[in-house]
Amino acid sequence: MNEKTDMFHRIESAFDILHFTQNLIQFADNKANTLIVINSIFLASLPSLAAERTFMVVGGGFLGILRGLFFVASVTAVIYCLLVVMARKDNPETSKRPDLIFFDDIVKHKNASSYFYEYMKIGDATLLEDLARRNFNAAGIAQNKYNLYGTALRVTFASCLLWIACILTPYMTIIR
């Protein structure tokens, strides 16, 4: 295999890695959006939980604490989900110079012709370096999103358990 073909395969592989990582980022965003919907439904149910006659009779005390914890858990989960889907800034340590891949660097050119001129001027090694930098940045973003998503998922699970407890507690008290 000649050097040009090897470089082509490396560049193609780097684009594949970037595409794969971007898909992981999008997957985390979609999952976080689903959790936002679930927690919004939980939060929307809170007034009806508090308004039910059964809840008013037993209200306060333990049930009031459960409702308070439920509210805090649901709001916390929504906040973590929003942190997942919020846009991330480029890592300044890995982007010492503008490249020809990142959209923000591309639009710094005055027109498409200027961008095309710069693109044609760079060598394969520079393009591969830019791709490696973008892959590193995307991997950091993905890692951050998945860490936040994991927390959001655990807090949503706790919120779900508290929601169930809020629903069942009055009936458990009545049964006694």
Structure description:
The chain is mainly alpha-helical. It has one domain. Helices cover 83% and strands 0% of the residues. The chain is built from 6 helices and no strands. It has helices spanning 3-51, 53-58, 61-85, 103-106, 112-121, 124-175. It is elongated. The termini are far apart. The relative contact order is 0.17. Mean pLDDT is 85; it is low at 53-58.
Q: What share of residues is helical?
A: over 70%
Write down the domain tally: 1
Structural class: mainly alpha
Global geometry: elongated
Compressed to H and E, one letter per element, the order equals HHHHHH
- Mean pLDDT over the full residue set: 85
End-to-end span in angstroms?
80 Å
Task: Please tally the β strands and state the result.
Answer: 0
Question: Unreliable segments (pLDDT under 50, ≥5 consecutive)?
Answer: 53-58
The gyration radius over C-alpha positions equals 25 Å
Number of helices: 6
Major sheet size, sense and barrel closure: none
Percentage beta strand: under 5%
